[in-house]
Amino acid sequence: MKFPRHLLSIGDLSRESATALLDTAAELARISDGQIKKLPTLRGRTVVNLFFEDSTRTRISFETAAKRLSADVINFVAKGSSVSKGESLKDTALTLQAMGADAVIIRHHASGAPQRLADAGWIAGPVINAGDGTHEHPTQALLDAFTIRHHLAKDRGTLDGLEIAIVGDILHSRVARSNIFLLSMLGAKVTVIAPATLLPVGIESWPCSISYDLDDSIEKFDAIMALRIQRERMEQAFFPSEREYSRHYGLNGDRLSRLKSGAILLHPGPMNRGVEIDAKSADSVRSVIVDQVTNGVFVRMAVLYLLLSGSPANLAEEVKG
């Protein structure tokens, strides 16, 4: 099976390659639970975290994943760097390449920046999108799919037929876009639920159903993902108030009581507790939010492993030898 050279979008993956990636992450998770915590796969390779936007969860997750594969990691943060003095993306990339970067993980405020980096050929190795503007965040979608599969479909290894709701700020969410395309590719039925003002133009053509009322169908979902209200991307009022938003779209104890048995709650973080999800729901037995963080390391290990070392078949041989 051929894996893409870069991971810029969920569109770079087929159902077969996405499933193989999740299977590889599952094997890496199994290994990590044993005595072997580290693999020598990327020894001597240098992985760069190139972050033009603030992040804690994603950057540390990628750093941990790379180090568990024995790579050297350089964390490049735009604030306080030459970028803050006006250096271009091209010159930054060429500098990193000159320093021997074997792969670059980029988070950028501009949609399309990772694609530009990959297409221009400034970096010789793989480029991995860690979130670009309101476009995509493919590894977040992969770790969400991994978490859902682990909790709801571990035995059959497929998401076929699962009903999944994504609730909240779809308009500004790169996580929502990546999840809609990945989860539907893997066989789930995705419904987005939000006020009309928080839905992007053209969403009718995306592989999902649209609802404006969370209470109308909450009982049917196997998994519900709440999205953060992205205040930093909002230049106008998209709803009357946070209290009003929470009343119509927030996950709370009353709504949890109506969920089907075994249904789970997800959130990509960071959470606005009391807005899109209350504390009781976030900390309930249905919540797999902490699991998402743990699984993010395994999924990102799998991404680095497959993009930099090739076939998932090599993993078994490497563990043995």
- Structural class, judged by helices and strands? alpha/beta
Terminal Cα span: 23 Å
- Placed side by side, the strands forming the largest sheet appear as 7-6-5-8-9
Query: What is the CATH homology-level superfamily of the largest domain?
Result: Aspartate/ornithine carbamoyltransferase
Give the CATH topology of the largest domain.
Rossmann fold
Proper CATH architecture of the largest domain: 3-Layer(aba) Sandwich
The radius of gyration computed from the alpha-carbon positions, rounded to a whole number of angstroms, is 20 Å
**Number of domains as seen in the coordinates:** 2
The average pLDDT value, as a whole number, equals 90
Q: What percentage of residues falls in helices of 4 or more residues?
A: 25-40%
The profile of the biggest β sheet is: 5 strands, parallel
N-to-C order of helices and strands: HEHEHEHEHEHEEHEHHEHHH
Key phrases:
single chain; 321 residues; alpha/beta; Rossmann fold; 5-stranded parallel sheet; 4-stranded parallel sheet; 12 helices; 9 strands
Describe the structure.
The protein is built from twelve helices and nine strands. The protein is α/β, with parallel strands linked by helices. The chain has two domains: about 150 residues, Rossmann fold; about 160 residues, Rossmann fold. Strands 7-6-5-8-9 form a five-stranded parallel β-sheet, covered by helices on one side. Strands 2-1-3-4 form a four-stranded parallel β-sheet, sandwiched between helices. The longest helix has 21 residues.
